[in-house]
Every structure is written in C-alpha cells, then in structure tokens.
Amino acid sequence: MSVFRTPKKLKILFIATEAAPFARVGGLGSVMYSLPKALKDLGYDARVMIPRYLSINGNHHLKMEYEDLEVPTGNEEGPEHLICNVKRCDPGPDSEATVTTYFLENQEYYEQRANVYGYADDVVRWAVLSRGTLEFIRRNHNWTPDIIVSSDWQTALVPNYLKTIYAKDPVLSKIASVLTIHNLYYQAMFDHRYVSEMDFDDGHSAIPGFNNFRLEKLNFLRRGIMFADVFNTVSPNYAREIMTEDYGEMLDDLLRERRVFLSGILNGINYEVWDPRTNPHISFPFDVDHLDDRLKNKAILQERFGLPVKPEAFVVAIVSRLNPQKGLNLLFSIADTLLQELPMQLVVVGEGDSDFMSFFHNLEVRHPDQVATNLKFDTALPFLVFSGADIALVPSKFEPCGLTQMEAMRMGCIPIARKTGGLTDSVEDYDPDHGTGTGFVFERFDHNSLMITMVRAFENFRDKKKWRALQHRAMKQDFSWHNSAKKYVDLFSRAVEIHHSK
C-alpha cells in the first residue's frame, strides 16, 4: 500500500483551448468556466490555462507572469525553441475571471489568429499549448499544481509528454494527469475512421517535432487515454457506452483494457445564469411555485418569433447545433405530419450543416403560422425560448452529456430525449401511473419512435394538473456544478494516489 496521502486541498490546473469568459466556442468553454469555479468554492486551488488569442485583448487587464519562455520544438531541423510569454488574470473587482487564468502568448500561433479553431496548423498550435504549459510549470516557481487536467484531443498530448519526455523531471514527474473526454467522436485533426495501415498511430512512437509532418498523423486522444493516470467522460452512461463497438469510435478495445482508470461524471449547469427568477433575458421572472407567470413568457416567445399568440398551443423548441449527432434528421420525414395533426408550434434556434439549415428554413416557409427559426448562433435566445416553450427536443444519435436538457428543465421546459449518453443520466421517463419522471424518453433511433413520443407528450400536456406536477419535478432536479465538482475531487484524489503508487 502507498504511504502517500492525498493533500487536503489539491492544486489543479485545467489546460484547454477555450474558457469563458475569455474565449468560448462551445460547451467546453462553459465547463472551463463553471467547474474550476465550483472547485474554488469548495476550497480548492483550481486554475486554468488557455492560449491568448487575438480576441483576448487589453480589456482583461492581463499581467505578465513569465517572460521569454523557451518551449522546445523537438525539431530535427530549424529552431530548437519557440519563445512564448505567459500572462495571467486574477479574480477581482475589475476582472471577469472567477479563478486565476493563465494565457500562453505566441505571436505566430495565437495572437494573430482571430478564431479559436479552424486553421491548417491547429495540430501544431495544440502541441505548442501542451508543451508550453509544461515548460511554464517546470520553470515557474510561484505555483505548482498537483494535477493537470487535459480536455479532449487538443490537449491530450499532455499525459504523453509527462510519461515520456518529462518522466524524470524533478517537478513534472510529481504531477498526476487526468484526461476529460467531452466527445470521443473527435480524436485528432483527421477522421480516425479512414486511416491507412501505414498512417495508423499505435501511440507508442515518440512525439514528433512541431515541424514534422508526422505530428499530423498522431491520434492525440488515443495517446491521452493510454498515458493519463485516470480519465473520465462527462456522464456515467457515456463512460459505459464508449466501451462498446457501437459507441467506442474504434477505441473500445483500448477503453476496455483501461476501464479500471475510467470514470463518468455528469456535467452541470451554471445555476446563477440559469435562474428563472433573475435571468435578465426573461421578461417575467418565475420559480417553481409561480408557474402561472411562466405562461406570460410563452406569449412573449410567440410574439418574438412572429407566431400566433395561443396559450393552448403545444410549443416545441429546438436549441441545438444542427448536425447529424443531434438526431434532428429524424424529423425530416415526420415534421409535416406532426404540424398538420397537432396544434403545435415549432421554434428552432441554432446553426450548422446546410442540409439541416435548408430543411428548417423550408419547413418555416411551408408552415409560417407554426414554425419560426433563428438559424444563427445567439447567446440570449435560449433563455427566452426555454422560459416559454413547453417541450425541448433532444433526439440525439449520441450525446456524451448534453446541457440543453438540463437548461430546459431548470426553466420548466420538458425534454423529449433519446435514451443515450448523458441524456439517460439526466432525464427520467414520465410515468403517469406513479407520478414520476422528468421528461419523455425513447430508445430506438428512428422517426417512428420520435413521433410516438411527441404524441405521447402532447396527450399528457393536455392534462394541466399532471403537466404542472411534471414541471415541478423537472425544475427541482439538481444539476448544479457543486455536486459534480465533489465527484471530480474524488477523481483527482484517486489520480494522485495512482500516480504516486507507481
């Protein structure tokens, strides 16, 4: 047995490509805001490190933390080092930061880039971030973490670097590594489903230099899973699913091999933001005991989207990325029938693939009094939509966690969800005989199952007393980050113990 004892208050560094409020593209940015903050509220020293992009400017009052950091390139030819700076932003009255946040500066790879993602050399940019972070830690004596947490494939080289190049480093060798998989579908710059035998990365070769074309051939996520002390997904059910061939994205053998180091922890939502009593985007504040006020928001929603104001209408909302993962193609063959047969209104907010965008646009043209769309990203509309709609549609083909269903329930909007991933962990199917459940769940991924479930939801919607009780149960669910953060503390403590027992 190891004599090592886990520190009472661990020091944790999250390394990611985005973190709100500085840079947010998707759910990862929200997690990198809320989870470190929740850990800090529990008394832990949690910090974040991301690149300093062009959009992160002087308005954030950044201070220099480490100047002229030499980051080894590993190149066989060309410069041996890249020169970077590290700046920091601390919480305070003039700061948007909720935890200390570090920014890796490099003119070529970050400061000249307007976007977070989408560049041909992204694989180099993330390798620089991973190795630059480790060089900063080993050289900066002001603060050293006990744990480094990588997020998704972009920073999954960190555990690989730690176990190889830095295995004997007096500072870095003492640090445990954790990899959080937000979506197994994305593993590298290339599509891992179409890799020749010659280009297959088994994870055992040395990490190439930044200017070596072989760097683009690495499956970053595979390496992170292989080398991390522990790793987790963002829901318990998704952790089980990815060990199967159907969901394992060709890594199921490796995942089963390392299953003892795998955990699933459900993501949370920010209850300060998703509070129907105080959210500034909600016209009529309400809570679980004052749901009559919520009906006023339904009228506001209908007016905002140009739909007839009908309190009795069955308002179904889609707030989503419009792509195959989200399962909205199940509507292609049934949407017209549903709109013709049910007193239903459909509100769609989101953007994505052209075929989905065209489908919803044409549906709106065919049913102008029942369908309204906003086919572009909007940060404010989800609050308006979920505070007034009756149903949130989440028929995902696969879903590592999903936040939409939690956000909707918090606002009294009942989810229709497919039984997969984190939807399974967060939505309980409604049982009218026993008065239990928080939504309507279907299992088979086909349009008939979705249609039957939507009709079932509508029939129950007509019973206002039971529907009100269903809303009560949904709104009272606790998806706060406080609960998830405590489970992450257990995971981090386990990582430290495993690391120091080797």
Automatic annotation (TrEMBL):
EC number: 2.4.1.21
Domain Glycosyl transferase family: 303-454
Domain Starch synthase catalytic: residue ranges: 11-257
Reaction it catalyzes: [(1->4)-alpha-D-glucosyl](n) + ADP-alpha-D-glucose = [(1->4)-alpha-D-glucosyl](n+1) + ADP + H(+)
Pfam families from the UniProt entry: Glyco_transf_5 (PF08323), Glycos_transf_1 (PF00534)
Annotated GO MF terms: alpha-1,4-glucan glucosyltransferase (ADP-glucose donor) activity; alpha-1,4-glucan glucosyltransferase (UDP-glucose donor) activity
Chain sites annotated for binding ADP-alpha-D-glucose: 24
Glycosyltransferase as UniProt keyword: yes
Record InterPro entries: Glyco_trans_1, GS/SS, Starch_synth_cat_dom
GO biological process entries: glycogen biosynthetic process
Keyword terms: Glycogen biosynthesis, Glycosyltransferase, Transferase
Involved pathway(s): Glycan biosynthesis; glycogen biosynthesis
Job of this protein: Synthesizes alpha-1,4-glucan chains using ADP-glucose.
Similarity comment: Belongs to the glycosyltransferase 1 family. Bacterial/plant glycogen synthase subfamily.
Name listed for the protein in its UniProt record: Glycogen synthase
Biological source species: Candidatus Vogelbacteria bacterium CG10_big_fil_rev_8_21_14_0_10_49_38
Organism ancestry: Bacteria, Candidatus Vogeliibacteriota
Gene coding for it: glgA
